[in-house]
Task: structure prediction
Amino acid sequence: MNPTMRDVADYARVSPMTVSRTLRDDPGVAPEKRSRVLAAVAALGYRRNEAARTLRVGGSTKLLGVIITNIANPFYAQLALGIEDHADKRGMRVVFANSGENTDRERQLVQDFAARRLDGIIAVPAANQHDHLDPAGLAAVPVVLAASPPHRINVDAVLLDDFGGTYEATSMLIARGHRNIGFLGLPAATWTGSERYRGYVAALEAAGLAVQDRFVRRNQPHVAAAVEAANAILDQPDPPTAVFAANNRNTIGAYRAIRSHGGTTALAGFDDFDFADLLDLPLIVVSYDAREIGRVAAELVCGHIDNPSSTPLARRVVIPTKVIDYPNAAS
Amino acid sequence: MNPTMRDVADYARVSPMTVSRTLRDDPGVAPEKRSRVLAAVAALGYRRNEAARTLRVGGSTKLLGVIITNIANPFYAQLALGIEDHADKRGMRVVFANSGENTDRERQLVQDFAARRLDGIIAVPAANQHDHLDPAGLAAVPVVLAASPPHRINVDAVLLDDFGGTYEATSMLIARGHRNIGFLGLPAATWTGSERYRGYVAALEAAGLAVQDRFVRRNQPHVAAAVEAANAILDQPDPPTAVFAANNRNTIGAYRAIRSHGGTTALAGFDDFDFADLLDLPLIVVSYDAREIGRVAAELVCGHIDNPSSTPLARRVVIPTKVIDYPNAAS
DNA sequence: GGCAACTCTGGTACCGATACCATCGCCGGG
DNA sequence: CCCGGCGATGGTATCGGTACCAGAGTTGCC
Result:
């Protein structure tokens, strides 16, 4: 087995206490014994058992739990980077898990994290059901939500300006003369889905345009469905001259459909991506700093870790969005 | 503070042992006491302290450490997904950290992981210096490398067929009539860089073509440098009619350069990506299942966890590549 | 009826580290 | 010369669980 502190003590002919003090840089260890201890540590390849230390000191595990829906989505990868940025500054490590948009699994993961006594949890909730994310039921482990506000629980959240970004991009389409604008959205029950739709509707209304339901599709779980929905919109008589896609997947689907329809329909979408400027059709995207979301979420959760007495404030930090125009002129 | 097992025992008017047994599903607990205990657990919101349990049982932390260079790279995100796939089946969680291609940081992370008694480590090494990844110096924590073979240490590795993929893609360019083919590579000191270059050279030689150093650039750390290198190659008199780019970054750079040169140069590159079929120039990519790499690496490391006595075999599993042709005909 | 075997329960020690207190030797001042 | 005080060191209990063993109560079989 691994050497223990007692082994080191025996080897160095001192008591375990002296070893403990030495390794904690406690003053009041004679230089000579100190060096004997360090030599013993090196000789035995000793490494302190942090779990045991944590148990005794009542200290923290210095682990931050992160639950996201899918790390393969570049948005979440950036989020993860931002969280790690901040965690690392505090000597903390990050435990990642993918929920796969499944609330049951999300619940299991949260329970597991609490049992492991992680210091804090950052979650991108899969759905609207948030009871299992309430710190009150989780041994008071601080929780911060990202990308979606809490529902009936009292925790902080870092949000994106879903409404504003969509409003701005849609308005840009209108400013370019489009009057009939399609919408490929996310399920209405989700925060993001509802906010982005709200932004679309508000932009139309502000320009005195009516929302036409025949141009709206709101439930495409994958790219293939998005292609199909976009085709359905474009195949109508008197089709829209522009489309707004509420996320990455829908943008790709719309892009493919527009391409196969001759490429004359304007396209705007939420979520920027690499290569957006290398495509063969013009594109408008709503961009934002996903890494910053992670950084802020980590800051908030660390704030609660440092100061557990602070009652959850249900704060909401909103990260701004920026609309980017990729003209993608003929090459 | 959190309730302890003793609190539960007091509440249920039994001994701590009975609580412990109940929570471990030990048979031989009277049904009535059992239900009293479960009621007490629910009433107090008790959660067993896994760290304490691990300490006593001498068991494992059920944590797998993963060190990659940058999670924002979709390749590593997929790798991470594959690792989590397998870990999850065994009730393990995954601790991620980015080394940022910095060996010093990598060393710190590995030490930290060992001190936390993680059960195993999967690393994509930042460089050729691997001493710090030797399980012998890490409390015998099993280590598996991904994407790069071990150097002077005795551990398993999961590799990609860097040579074969490059050979095949380059050969495809040759088969299409190209005789002068540029190469945008990675530093020669890296395994991947050297293997991919070897594949390029071997394909040329097999076709009786000479390697022309004026068409080769091997050190572009970011996209801007790749653009510059590609421009330098294309601006020569009698430039190549095709270019092979040894990774993602170089492919993007080459793509931009080729586009600005009129778009007549053929392009092939290592690493597939979303949107590859939506660009406005034809493209050949070397594709592979990054998720599978992660899955296999996790399997290997779990094998060592289950059977610590097994001497490291320095096994090498090679994941195959597949060449994909995106004609990207005019839209 | 007696004794072994079995079921259920609780006491005690211990995993590896550290907080707290006791001890020991040494110093200077009264 | 003796005692208070200080710095260095070690003993002991403890963090939250669990392995091991002992003991109480019950049953079954000869």
The CA atoms of residues 288 and 321 of chain B lie 5 Å apart. Residues 14-18, 21, 28-30, 33, 52, 54-58 of chain B lie near DNA strand C (CB under 10 Å from a C1'). Chain B has a mean pLDDT of 92.
